[in-house]
Design a protein that fits this description.
The complex is a heterodimer of chains A (310) and B (253). The two termini of chain A are 22 Å apart. In chain A, the strands form 2 sheets. Chain A has a two-stranded antiparallel ribbon. Chain A has a two-stranded antiparallel ribbon with strand order 3-4. By secondary structure, chain A is mainly alpha-helical. Chain A has helices at 14-31, 36-45, 50-74, 80-107, 110-142, 175-192, 197-207, 212-237, 243-263, 269-292; strands at residues 2-5, 10-13, 163-166, 171-174, 299-303. The model of chain A has no long low-confidence stretch (mean pLDDT 81). Chain B is flat. Residues 11-18 of chain B have low confidence and may be disordered. Chain B has 253 residues and is an alpha+beta fold. The chains are: A mainly alpha (310), B alpha+beta (253). Strand 5 (299-303) of chain A pairs antiparallel with strand 5 of chain B.
């Protein structure tokens, strides 16, 4: 069954869209990540214009993170004070990201920067996750007790000025690193159409030492608020949000995430992280190859103007 | 006697060259509506070549050739070239073609060069290859190189093309032609120009317009996105929040 996407201005198979939404939703439920970093590339590789893919996936990421954020909120797993700083700086970063997005599109370099961005981001995060999970698997085999978190160990970040007390996280730290993390993730997230949970969570855990019980909830709330703002910014600035495309992906994604979350119980943490690392690296390699291999056609074309750059 | 014959011949020739044809044609539709299940549309062109009103002749004499040119809405289109810079393939050069037709298909009843001269084809702007015009900023050389590549890309997408057996004659003076508009052909107003050729000369012509337009819900969405982008963006977010919440409720996460 074909469905016509009014902003992308092309006709796509409805079941294909719901299918990739569901598959990515399953993986995001399994690994506890937003899934934007898989969905945006998949859409681009299947022929949706990069600008429409990025802008529409931001809407999908909001939907995918909402139910998680709500359930964490009910359990009290969100540090609202910390989330506020992250969201405000995230929206600031999103303004920059959306402006860069429009500028790059006008220059004809958007696809290049999306590919480079994914390559660097996913390549580095994937490699770090791979090393970390392989290490912990090896240690576990040898019978070493792995400590989850080194509580109250201080590093240079804790010595910065403008310290603020975050009661729920039991932290008394400078707001500077919080704002920097929020801004960077806002910028990258709006430029690449990813929620940034996979950078946010490690950053909160390893840099700020936020306790585990509020990390996921705070990160999810930040993703919902920041990507919601980014969706509106994209709709206003580049007019390339396809609500129908986003909705098809949401339906698949929301349903798939539930099955992924239940499949999550059958796999162990280190194994999950190793699998996720492989997935992340595979996407990074795919983007890397598209940059270094000679393209099938050295010439390409696009329409100039608002809406989808066809 | 010989002079008289010659005179008669001259008069006859003059009479036949004064004969005029007109074209009566019909398009299968003048409005193509894009709905949510739109996957493209087939168009049919019908036409008949008749003696012009007021002409003395009762029937037309062929052989005729018919050429139909379907032109889509003008856009600003950019052609870009990737080159290898330090091992990475980057778009390094581009030419913007203003007022470039988003769609250009030519259907004819025979080889264009058999039908008429290249001069006529050029004057009437019938060839797809002739669509990229000289862009002052880029200069003559780049305009022609990138223009040729742009036409090639448009042809690959099915937006540009030349079908030299696209028009079928049903009788000496009636013809039919079919064209399938792809689903991603740009919405807007289209022009179908029909030329009737006889001995390499245009003896009749006719232009008909048709529109490709989003209707109903699709139109509502597209119009909202471009005219009320802020409200549209908020609606997208509200839909996302609602879908996410509903998913959580349904699956009791």
């Amino acid at each position: 069954m074909q469905i016509y996407l009014p902003i992308a201005e092309l006709s796509v198979n409805l079941f294909f869209l719901i299918g990739i939404g569901g598959a990515v939703g399953f993986l995001s439920g399994l690994f506890g990540v937003g899934g934007g970093f898989l969905l945006t590339p998949l859409l681009i590789f299947s022929g949706v214009p990069a600008s429409v893919a990025v802008a529409s996936v931001t809407g999908q990421v909001v939907a995918a993170s909402t139910s998680g954020a709500l359930s964490h909120y009910r359990r009290g797993g969100i540090d609202m004070h910390l989330a506020m700083y992250l969201v405000l700086s995230g929206i600031l970063g999103a303004f920059g990201g959306v402006a860069a997005f429009s500028l790059l599109r006008a220059l004809g370099q958007l696809d290049l920067f999306i590919a480079l961005g994914f390559l660097l981001l996913l390549g580095s995060v994937g490699t770090l996750m791979m090393i970390e999970s392989v290490n912990s698997i090896v240690k576990q085999r040898r019978g070493v007790v792995v400590r989850e978190r080194q509580a109250h160990q201080h590093n240079w970040i804790h010595g910065l000025p403008w310290r603020v007390r975050f009661k729920k996280s039991r932290l008394y730290i400078s707001v500077l690193p919080v704002l920097v993390i929020g801004t960077i993730i806002g910028f990258l997230g709006s430029l690449l159409g990813v929620g940034g949970g996979f950078i946010m969570v490690p950053a909160l855990v390893y840099l700020l030492r936020v306790p585990g019980n509020v990390v996921i909830g705070t990160s999810l709330l930040q993703v919902v608020a920041m990507m919601g703002a980014t969706t509106i910014l994209h709709a206003v600035q580049s007019q390339s949000v396809d609500i129908l495309l986003a909705f098809c992906l949401m339906i698949g994604g929301v349903a798939g995430a539930q099955f992924g979350a239940s499949a999550n119980k059958y796999l162990r943490g280190e194994q999950l992280r190793a699998l996720l690392a492989i997935l992340v690296l595979a996407v990074a390699i795919r983007f890397g190859l598209s940059l270094i291999l000679a393209p099938a056609d050295a010439f390409s074309m696009a329409v100039i103007g608002p809406g989808g750059a066809r | 006697m010989r002079r008289v014959l010659l005179a008669v011949l001259v008069v006859l020739l003059a009479a036949s060259s004064a004969s005029a044809e007109r074209l009566v044609s019909q398009l299968s539709t003048d409005l193509i509506e894009i709905t949510s299940s739109y996957t493209g549309q087939r168009l049919t062109f019908f036409g008949s070549i008749e003696p012009d009103a007021g002409a003395e002749q009762r029937f037309v004499e062929g052989p005729f050739h018919v050429v139909i040119v379907v032109t889509g809405p003008a856009q600003a289109r950019v052609a870009r070239q990737k080159t290898n810079v330090f091992g990475i393939w980057i778009n390094t050069d581009q030419v913007v073609f203003e007022g470039f037709p988003g769609y250009f298909q030519v259907l004819s009843s025979g080889r264009l060069l058999d039908i008429t001269s290249p001069t006529t084809l050029a004057i009437e702007n019938i060839l797809p290859e002739a669509q990229p015009t000289l862009q002052d900023e880029a200069g003559w050389w780049k305009s022609s190189v990138f223009g040729r590549e742009l036409v090639r890309l448009m042809t690959q997408k099915g937006f540009f093309g030349l079908n030299e057996s696209g028009v079928q004659f049903l009788s000496n003076s009636t013809y039919a032609a079919r064209l399938t508009l792809p689903s991603d052909a740009p919405p807007g107003s289209y022009l179908a120009s029909t030329y009737v050729f006889k001995n390499g000369e245009i003896v009749a012509r006719r232009a008909e317009g048709f529109a490709v337009r989003k209707t109903g819900f699709e139109r509502f969405l597209a119009v909202s996105a471009s005219q009320q982008p802020f409200v549209y963006g908020i609606a997208c977010v509200a839909l996302a929040l609602f879908t996410g919440w509903l998913g959580g409720v349904i699956f009791k996460r």
